Amino acid sequence: MSFYRGRKVLAVLLISVLLLTTACTPKTPGRFDQVQQESSKQKKGQAVAKTATQGGEFNKFFPKSGGGYDRVYTQEKKGFAEAKLKKAGKEVAVLSISDTTSTPDAAAKFSKSTKKIAGYPAVEQGKTQSAILVGKYQVKVQSKATTFTASDRADWLSKFNLDGLAKLK
């Protein structure tokens, strides 16, 4: 009987020593830790400019729900706001407004545009995205359903309160 008891005590003692030594050893830095520290300290090249408009400011410029479509806000952060467009409960498109202050290349693509939607320069991005530039703001509609065409995207772009957005500073 004391033999089994001795083995149990020895097992508990060995496990305790093992846990104590592994818990107290310093953590070795991972391969991404140094890069993370450097990028966190970096000021230049940050994702969002300090002067970018708050995403909540954009919500009032989105088209309203109606005509069988529901608009559901999904993301709002500094310089960007997004809403899903649903019909019969299925997502058919994504609507967004972004401040190009943080991404000047986004605005540059409109300089060679010959197409206009609602009087603003427009571009097609691939086969599923249409965008216009309103001042410093890019307004985009991205098809999520094959039934949502380029013509539908242009219609929805013109449903935004573009004149109100143009006055936003």
Automatic annotation (TrEMBL):
Domain of life: Bacteria
Keyword set includes Signal: yes
Region (Disordered): 31-51
Keywords: Signal
Signal peptide (from-to): 1-23
Protein name in UniProt: Lipoprotein
Organism taxonomic ancestry: Bacteria, Bacillati, Cyanobacteriota, Cyanophyceae, Nostocales
